[in-house]
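User: tokens in, sequence out, please.
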């Protein structure tokens, strides 16, 4: 069974300053994905519960580890880091699970990428331009990255809602 002490969620204050608000909503959505996975075993987390999609909760966690790594390490900081789960031959590799893929590894990797992202972001102002452009050479700043990450988590948390309900009937969070 999955267990984590990192699943507590706190909605940011409606009166928070901009950075606190953006960081608060990002943390809220990170915690939401962890909550969607809480209490399930590896088999359940691997289940592609909404056919014909091969999307699973384990795949979503692996995907978000890649997303954290891509936006904060590659784009914001300009780090040269290899993908974790995908390859040029399999651009959706994080969703294509093997018998060796486990929750313990995926969760640990995801949390490590989140922690690295927090440290990198702490060293930048919201208006700081990212070290690298994204898609088609477009520039962005940390504010844009935070907003995009909130959107990315919110969208995938909607997917996680459907997956979790199909796996064991749980709704909410």
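Assistant: Sequence out:
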């Amino acid at each position: 069974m999955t267990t984590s002490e990192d699943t507590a969620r706190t909605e940011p204050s409606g009166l928070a300053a901009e950075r606190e608000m953006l960081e608060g909503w990002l943390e809220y959505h990170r915690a939401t994905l962890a909550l969607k996975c809480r209490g399930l075993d590896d088999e359940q987390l691997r289940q592609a519960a909404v056919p014909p999609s091969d999307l699973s909760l384990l795949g979503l966690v692996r995907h978000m580890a890649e997303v954290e790594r891509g936006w904060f390490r590659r784009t914001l900081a300009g780090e040269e880091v290899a993908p974790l789960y995908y390859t040029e031959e399999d651009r959706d590799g994080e969703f294509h699970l093997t018998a060796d893929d486990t929750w313990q590894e995926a969760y640990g990797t995801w949390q490590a990428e989140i922690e690295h992202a927090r440290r990198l972001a702490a060293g930048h102002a919201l208006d700081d331009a990212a070290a690298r452009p994204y898609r088609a050479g477009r520039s962005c700043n940390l504010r844009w990255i935070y907003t995009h990450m909130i959107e990315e988590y919110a969208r995938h948390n909607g997917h996680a809602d459907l997956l979790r309900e199909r796996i064991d009937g749980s709704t909410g969070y």
